[in-house]
Structures are given as structure tokens and as C-alpha cells.
Structure to design on (348 residues):
């Protein structure tokens, strides 16, 4: 799950496992495998970093 | 001006009256048999009163405005909407969706509905919600438009009904006052007066109400098509599709002939742009 900020400033969390593509139109458009898409403010590097961080957290399992 | 409507109306009235006068033996006889003031009271008066009873006052107030709309001849030019949307899409791809707020007020085509739709995407509402909102707006516009022709539909349906009523009144009076010594002569005269109301009613329906109603519906269809086109265009802009692809997609709303014109205009524009770019490169 990755926290992002929508274009209207609203913060929400999306399921990083469902991300299919991230486009720049020039807004960041995150398309999910369900066909739904979200326009967010976060730049692409940030989102990718967050996803990596999220996956690392899972594999490290330091919450246990 | 809506020329075909006027031609149809004038030709229809002219031919019907020509037929009436030609079928009678002479002018005074025709005038006597077809102009009957009490029949007019029953048919037109009755139909109008029944319409007023069945239709809210607000619909009736709109009638002059709707007639004005009907008389306007110009067809909605869908290609100008396509051009405007393409321009907006190009701008959105370059500078982002937020600049559209300004851009939509400065482009050549000023359309309230287009502005409304663009504002929805500028406000960054979710795509599914934008679609739902626009569809809702369109269906509300549709409902409002339906009041325009419902007046004429109602009046049209009451015309023949009151014509029939008038005929019954005529027959009742004829039979009650029939002079047995008059024979077939009295019968024929009474019948002809009685049937005039049916003529008035049918005339009111088929010559005036039905064509007006149909024309208003046709205008409505045309407008709805343009609204649908705007909706599709704006949603495509939001999903960040390629402006050229949007144009191709939207051109399915117009005929092949118009499409050719639209694309030809494109071809003429493009070489100029390329030339400009080349010049810029050389200068650099």
C-alpha cells in the first residue's frame, strides 16, 4: 500500500500490487489492473521509491 | 432562419387550401361549409383549454422561447467542438490539466457545457465520478427539453379528440332539429357542419402540432449528440489520451464527408507548423 496525494489535495492509499502502469500526461496517472486510474500529484521517482520501500518492509518482516 | 420549416408550413397550408377550394363547387360554398365559428370554439377552444389544464404554467411560458429556438436554422457544427477539444487536449498534455481552467475561457468556442465539464476535471474529481456527474447533467437537460415538445404533443392529441366531440355535438343537434320534410337535404347539410370540427382538429394536429413537436425533438437530438461528444472528449482529456487520437475518436460522431474536411484542414495547418519549427531550429 502506497500513500499518494490526489490532484485535489486529498490523501489516499493505493494498493501498490495492483499498479499496472504509471503515466505522465504531465500529471502522474496511476492505472490499476482493474482499469481504474487515479491522477496524483506525486512525481514518479517518489512513487517508485515508496513502492520499493513498501516491498522492502514486507520482505524484511521487521513488524513481527 | 429555419427555411425548410417555413417552406413546409407555407406549402402545406397553400396546398391544403388549394385542394379545399378546388374540390368545392364555388368560393362562397367552400367558405360557407369550411368556416364555421361555433366549430372553431369547440375544437380550438376545447383543445387549448384542455392543454392548459394538463400542462404546468412554466411549460407554457417557455413556448415563445422554444418557437424562437425552432426558427433558428443553424445546425450545430460538431467539428468546431472537436477542434476545441483537441486544442484543450494539446494544452493539457503540455502544461497539465490545471491550465485548462484559463484556456477554456480564452478559446474561440465559448460553450457553457464544455466549460462545466472542463471545470469538473480541473477540480480533480475522480474519472468515474466525472462521468456520472456529466451523464446526470445530460439526463436533466433531456428532461427539461422534453417539456418543450410536450406542450405541442398534448395540444396535438387534443385536437382530433375535440374535433370528434364537436362532430358529436353537431350530430346531436342535427338529429334533434331535423325536419322530416327536408329529407336528405337537411341530413346532408347537418352532417357537413358537424364534420367541420373533425377537420379542424385533424388540421391542428397534423399541420401544426406534430411538425413543431418533431422538429423540436430533432433539434434536441442534435444538441444531445454535441453534449455526448463533449463528454467523451473531456473524459479523454482527463485520461491523458493523445490529442490526435482524441480527434480520431471524436470524428466518429460526424459524417465521413465532414471528417474529410476536418482532416484536410489539419493537413493544411501542419506543414506550416513544421516549417516554423525548422526555422526555429535553424535560428538556434
Amino acid at each position: 500500500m502506497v500513500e499518494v496525494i490526489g490532484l485535489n489535495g486529498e490523501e489516499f492509499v493505493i494498493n501498490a500490487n495492483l499498479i499496472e502502469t504509471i503515466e505522465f500526461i504531465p500529471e502522474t496517472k496511476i492505472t490499476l489492473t482493474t482499469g481504474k486510474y487515479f491522477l496524483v500529484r506525486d512525481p514518479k521517482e517518489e512513487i517508485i521509491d515508496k513502492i520499493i520501500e513498501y516491498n522492502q518492509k514486507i520482505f524484511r518482516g521487521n513488524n513481527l | 432562419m429555419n427555411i425548410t420549416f417555413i417552406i413546409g408550413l407555407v406549402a402545406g397550408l397553400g396546398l391544403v387550401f388549394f385542394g379545399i377550394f378546388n374540390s368545392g363547387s364555388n368560393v362562397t360554398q367552400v367558405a360557407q361549409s369550411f368556416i364555421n365559428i361555433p366549430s372553431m370554439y369547440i375544437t380550438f377552444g376545447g383543445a387549448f383549454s384542455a392543454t392548459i389544464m394538463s400542462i404546468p404554467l412554466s411549460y407554457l411560458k417557455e413556448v415563445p422561447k422554444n418557437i424562437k429556438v425552432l426558427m433558428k436554422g443553424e445546425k450545430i457544427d460538431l467539428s468546431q467542438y472537436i477542434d476545441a477539444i483537441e486544442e484543450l487536449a494539446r494544452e493539457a498534455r503540455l502544461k497539465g490539466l490545471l491550465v485548462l481552467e484559463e484556456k477554456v475561457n480564452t478559446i474561440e468556442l465559448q460553450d457553457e457545457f464544455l466549460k462545466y465539464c472542463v471545470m469538473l476535471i480541473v477540480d480533480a474529481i475522480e474519472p468515474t465520478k466525472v462521468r456520472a456527474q456529466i451523464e446526470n447533467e445530460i439526463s436533466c437537460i433531456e428532461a427539461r427539453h422534453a417539456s418543450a415538445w410536450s406542450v405541442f404533443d398534448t395540444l396535438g392529441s387534443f385536437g382530433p379528440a375535440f374535433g370528434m366531440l364537436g362532430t358529436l355535438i353537431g350530430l346531436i343537434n342535427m338529429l334533434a332539429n331535423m325536419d322530416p320534410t327536408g329529407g336528405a337535404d337537411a341530413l346532408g347539410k347537418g352532417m357537413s357542419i358537424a364534420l367541420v370540427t373533425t377537420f379542424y382538429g385533424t388540421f391542428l394536429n397534423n399541420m401544426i402540432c406534430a411538425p413543431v413537436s418533431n422538429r423540436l425533438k430533432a433539434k434536441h437530438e442534435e444538441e444531445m449528440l454535441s453534449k455526448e461528444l463533449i463528454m467523451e472528449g473531456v473524459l479523454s482529456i482527463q485520461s491523458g489520451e493523445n490529442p490526435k487520437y482524441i480527434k480520431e475518436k471524436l470524428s466518429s460522431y460526424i459524417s465521413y464527408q465532414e471528417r474529410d474536411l476536418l482532416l484536410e484542414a489539419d493537413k493544411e495547418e501542419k506543414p506550416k507548423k513544421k516549417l516554423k519549427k525548422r526555422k526555429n531550429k535553424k535560428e538556434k
In short: Chain B touches chain A at residues 92-98, 123-128, 238-240 (CB under 8 Å).
